[in-house]
Amino acid sequence: MDTRLRVLVIDDEDAARRAVAAGLSDAGYDVLEAADGVTGLEQAVRGGVDLVVLDLRLPGLSGEQLLERLRLTSAVPVIVTSAKREEDDRVAVLDHGADDYLVKPFTVRELLARIRAVLRRSEPQEVVVTIGDVTIDFAGHTATCGGARVALTAQEFAVLDCLARHRGRIVTRGMLEAIIHPGESPPAPDLVTNIVDVLVLRLRKKLGHDLITTRRGQGFIIDG
To answer: Which domain CATH number covers 156?
Structure first.
């Protein structure tokens, strides 16, 4: 079963939608697409979507109408994209329940940063979580194993934090790369890098080999 984070992109401009979808897919997200408001709303309320990227100008049902109806039944995070630059337009959309507003044109790099920020804000605000013998203090950026404090580097804890907050879900190498190097563009799909593997190996040595499972061709997961 594919348990990657799933993003729904709703935009009637085929080229723009496909470019965004390709960029999100390269960064490790599972992407769904919709080209009109009615189809987009149906997919959003069906469930199984972690975030929606919503254009305002849509046939059938405008982005504003879609957002208003979606908020009657769902709290899924929504990032609105629009060419409208006026403050009143942004305020109105945010007041209707959008979590962020991104002015067109934008880069995939900026969208990925906004997605990470919105998902962080929407995560359950756990302070401490225990997984087997491992206890993670998110606020204190510390971890213990069997009751003993374990020394972790900033990058090691960043990887552990991401995997633990998304436990039960696959986290791809691309997503972990973005956590390790915030603000940078995601690596090309064919770029060979082993930084994530090295950090996961270190975490296994320090916290137990059974904590993090590798899903070949998909990424890593801490089972919930």
So the answer is: 1.10.10.10
